[in-house]
TrEMBL record:
Residues 60-762 form the Alanyl-transfer RNA synthetases family profile domain. SUPFAM superfamilies: Class II aaRS and biotin synthetases, Putative anticodon-binding domain of alanyl-tRNA synthetase (AlaRS), ThrRS/AlaRS common domain, Translation proteins. This is Alanine--tRNA ligase. PANTHER family: ALANINE--TRNA LIGASE, CYTOPLASMIC, ALANYL-TRNA SYNTHETASE. It comes from Halovenus aranensis. Its cofactor is Zn(2+). It is an enzyme of class 6 (ligase). It catalyses: tRNA(Ala) + L-alanine + ATP = L-alanyl-tRNA(Ala) + AMP + diphosphate.
Amino acid sequence: MSDLEEEYQLGYFTENGFTRKECVECGGAFWTRDEGRTTCGEPPCDTYSFIDNPGFDESYTVEEMREAFLSFFEEHGHDRIAPYPVAANRWRDDVLLTQASIYDFQPLVTSGETPPPANPLTISQPCIRMQDIDNVGKTGRHTMAFEMMAHHAFNTREDADDYAYEGEVYWKSKTVEHCDTLLGEMGADLEEVTYIEDPWVGGGNAGPAIEVIYRGLELATLVFMSMEQDPDGEYELKDGNRYSKMDTYVVDTGYGLERWTWMSQGTPTVYEAIYPEMIAFLKDNAGIEYTDEEEAIIHDAARLSGNLDIDDVDDVEAARGDIAAELGVDVERLRTLLEPLEDIYAIADHCRTLAYMLGDEIVPSNVGTGYLARMVLRRTKRLVDNVGVDAPLDELVDMQAKRLSYENRDTIRDVVRTEVERYRETLDRGSRRVEQLAEEYAQEGEPVPSSELVELYDSHGIQPDMVEEIATEHGADVAVPDDFYSLVAQRHNDETETDSESEAGRDSERYAELPATERLYYEDQSRMEFEAMVLEVFEHEDGYDVVLDQTMFYPEGGGQPADHGSISTDEETAEVLDVQQVGDVIVHHTDSNPGKGEFARGQVDANRRRRHMRHHTATHIVGHATRQVLGDHIRQAGAQKSTDSARLDVSHYESVSADELETIERVANEIVTENEAVDQEWVDRNEAEAEHGFDIYQGGIPEGEQIRLIHASEDTQACGGTHVSRTGEVGVIKLLGTERVQDGVVRLTFAAGEAAIEATQRTERLLSETADLFDVSHDEVPETAERFFREWKERGKRIEELKEELAAVRASGGGDGEEVDIEGTPAVIQRLDGDMDELRATANALVEDDSIAVLGSGASGAQFVVAVPDDCPVDAGHVVGELSQRVGGGGGGPADFAQGGGPDAEKVDDALDDAPEILKQALDA
RNA sequence: GGGCUCGUAGAUCAGUGGUAGAUCACUCCCUUGGCAUGGGAGAGGCCCCGGGUUCAAAUCCCGGCGAGUCCA
């Protein structure tokens, strides 16, 4: 079946007495030393045989196993690399979380554009896979968080050049040899190990791959990434697409740290092997105890469930029935025994996931990785409450963070506490809502419909089972549909398509043939004049695009706006209105044509540029100060500079208080006052990463082997912007304000240098104008404003009172109104040019005296109020309708009190003249 | 980045175009020796902001701001 069969004819196999066989159960091809073997070794063809029968000589903890693995590969010529963050979106924008060790080197290293940090290398990379979150705890082997131990080698073909690494380090046979040797050193019985042929396809790449199985457990996958999708390729693989060989070929291996540890211990589940003390703590805390007989059932069930090929939760539920049957136990009894234990396994795993996430400084939020962290945390909290563990969640997460040796454990605990509190508020809000809803439906005797459930979940974050619980207490039925989550998904399917592509594609083609523009602005960031040759000019709808051989003009990028200025030749001076970078070419957008092939002088608008430089350096300083004041989790989430101010968005889990803002401002200005050097440095990116970590990429990830670092005081950032040469040149930094731009992200707005002075002057002018208005000193403005506001409110109330009094007087004093008799009820018809409030009050007063009130006003347009005493059969709404029609409008209201009006104020009197007639009609009607 | 929900008294919320409400908390009075409590009265609102529609907007529409939530 496999088109790649010849790819597996490895020297190591033939030299070490392996034979290729086909599994009698599944038909898959595999390699083994055991001549008599007939099955491939992988469940369901075979079953776990290491439970209570560890497959290695010694028992290892995860820490010991990690160290054993890494040092083995170090001894075999690999460099040990520190793990990358689990937040993969810090260096690539196509995924959120790190799901495999190879993610660390995609896309730039695997494509050959950037050299790997070492070659070959070994690493133990923390990974998080949310896909099988529902299986965690239930199958005995699924975990959301795990470490993928790996050895990688990056190779290029002999005839290929222009890649960041050259030649072959090692390939398939050597890879298998390393794996086999490691298993041998661990004391595995090599006769029992099988190597299954299983070509790998994913993400546009493919290649032969081998699964390494021992005693039923898949211990490693050895992937030989060497092909890319190509419609004309010579290989057709299992996804139905065609592939062809690439110039680079990469050894991508994955050894599950947790599985190796499990194999070495032979415990019933993986969880008991990797964090036994936490499992013990949780069981004890939740008060879970078993009799010997129960213990035996659980033990057997765990072993059996490991043997089943379980891939989703439905299978787990079905499998439980099979297991119960095999053990001769009632399925409900088995469920009651296992469920609390499953929750505990899941809690331990989720806490470890959170420790990785928060330890790598992900801040919970409603977007991106922050949202995933929040989901995991809330899920964990539910499990903890469900199973009756009463330890605070921050303590549980800390247990795992401690084991993983994170240094920011205080912040982690703080974040967890804040999140738990936030969740509690959401639940409070939710339960109030559900209670109310439940009572409504209970009263009508109807069940809560699934549309309400979807609404509650989607808009308010309330789980259907929680609705069920609360609603039942209030006597309302709830039927949670089986396809609940697909109903929720349906609501999101109406989303609009993405908009069309830009024209950048064509542009970049046009500029591709031009040489890279030499960037003078990096050579001397304070120079503003230069000379250059005009290489090309493209005419445009609204101007010209000019390309020079070298330029001092800074193109828009990294949140710094483009420079302005002029490009002059002897004949022509062109204003530069915008500057953009297209590939390696810098394009100046101008208002006139300097002439292709001309020798030109460039002049950068120095004032504008200097303001940008101050704001750019100030941004680094403020970021650094914020990190010092608020904590190490502070990370840039976006930034924009202008001539007048700059803004910096940072990740933070609560809003910034006024006190904190002042402290940040003080710390930032201390850095300015210390007048330290701001240096730029071009360095090898791998060296930079090794020395400073990923925190240098807060403003985005630049391409290329060399990157530019900016050192401002103790802060180091990869940055392409222009900077002042000493922090003192920033002058002064004035923080203008802070706002929460989204959950988990806070925006700081500030101004530097003369812009700071201007900003201060602006606020002071506002204060002065306000003070002048009140005719008081600056100090007295707040209390004066407060007094004015209070008095304004008091006066409003007094006016209301007076209007009512006036209305009473008008109603009783007869006034100049006409009074007619409608079947024994007196009706007062009166013009009264006041506002609606006055009309209403007067009408009310008249009704108190058992009169019908028909009042009209011409104060702003025409307005009418008609009020009728309780027992009078006149319909006020009808009367108002008739009156309003006569002034070109309309009106209505309840039968005893109606309002209306229209635009024709001059017809108020005419309308009122008709009032007696209308009243009589209304009575007849 | 997108979808949805919500902004009304100090708190929790009613109010679907026609005179801004309830409960708790608050103040005062009464009941009691005191407390829990019970009875009565009162105070407290830029109905988030800005436009629009309308005779009339807390209410409908548009735009902001703020809060929440689901998804990628």
